[in-house]
Specification:
With 278 residues, the chain is α/β, with parallel strands linked by helices. It is built from 9 helices and 9 strands. α5 packs parallel to α7 and α7 packs parallel to α8. The longest helix has 21 residues. 43% of the residues are buried.
């Protein structure tokens, strides 16, 4: 529901977001190095006037695990600047993707994504970023995915602990970690394992659902919340217990499907005995 170019944010767009029942948004930063304090402050103020906060700053940057040292350092430099942008936006956190060795995309699989060398490179990059987050007073929210270097909750926990900064925390997106039928069909057990490992580090949530497609060999797809297999009640209940003041952001849907998704998430929250904070 955000404009493709955040600089186009105006009062009408902010009111549409708030009238749809949302109090927080993710702001994409396509080029943190080019962003200015004035334009991001204006975006923050326009949203705030409508009762909407910047829940998450989502910057674009080079993969933190890129084996090309110059490009890895550029990713670190841009992400450090994104911390400053997040302060200007007064964002709840800065979204961090670990990246991939696959040159075609940050969330695409590659054989060596979980190699010791790749994990060490990720930890080194994060250690170079966290001083900027600490200086700016912002929190980094790293996310994992079954295709990424952070392929399991336990791996995410180990990396967060290895970096050792209170500025590095976790963006919970359970659908990203589901890569087996066992986890897809037993999502309650998986959710409890994930929150047991990472609940203490959780600062934000991405909300979507998953479906197992009936075609060979194995295809697990994202779908509209409420249409799939994820135990949404357990997800929201565990998220609330771990991070009661955190935002839950619906993602990856066209605008016309967002109302139905929100209705499903609201209904799951009600069944779980939860009420959204205004």
């Amino acid at each position: 529901m955000m404009p493709a170019d955040v600089r186009a944010m105006d009062e009408a767009a902010a009111r549409r977001i708030r009238s749809a029942g949302f109090t927080g948004v993710s702001v994409v930063l396509p080029d943190p190095l080019a962003a200015t304090r004035g334009e991001l402050t204006r975006v923050r103020e326009v949203l705030a006037a409508a009762g909407v906060r910047v829940a998450q700053a989502n910057p674009r940057y080079e993969a933190l695990v890129n084996p090309d040292e110059a490009r890895r350092k550029e990713g670190v430099r841009v992400l450090r600047q994104a911390c400053r942008c997040a302060r200007w936006l007064e964002a709840g956190n800065v979204y961090v993707r670990p990246g991939s060795l696959n040159p075609r995309g940050h969330w695409l699989p590659y054989p060596a994504n979980t190699s010791p060398e790749t994990i060490d490179r990720l930890i080194r990059s994060l250690r170079e970023v966290v001083p900027a987050a600490e200086d700016e007073g912002v929190v980094l929210a790293i996310e994992g995915h079954v295709t990424s270097p952070l392929e399991a909750p336990e791996r995410v926990r180990a990396v967060i602990q290895a970096v050792g900064s209170p500025a590095l925390r976790f963006n919970v997106d359970p659908v990203n970690f589901v890569g087996t039928l066992a986890d897809a069909y037993s999502s309650t057990d998986f959710l409890n394992r994930m929150f047991d490992a990472l609940g203490e580090y959780t600062v934000c949530a991405h909300v979507k659902d998953l479906a197992v497609e009936e075609r060979l060999v194995l295809h697990i797809a994202e779908c509209v919340p409420g249409d799939g297999l994820l135990d949404m009640e357990t997800f929201l209940r565990r998220f609330d217990a771990a991070c009661p003041d955190g935002y839950a952001l619906i993602e990856h849907l066209p605008d016309d499907k967002i109302p139905r998704a929100k209705q499903a998430v609201d209904a799951a929250a009600a069944r779980a005995g939860l009420t959204w904070r205004e």
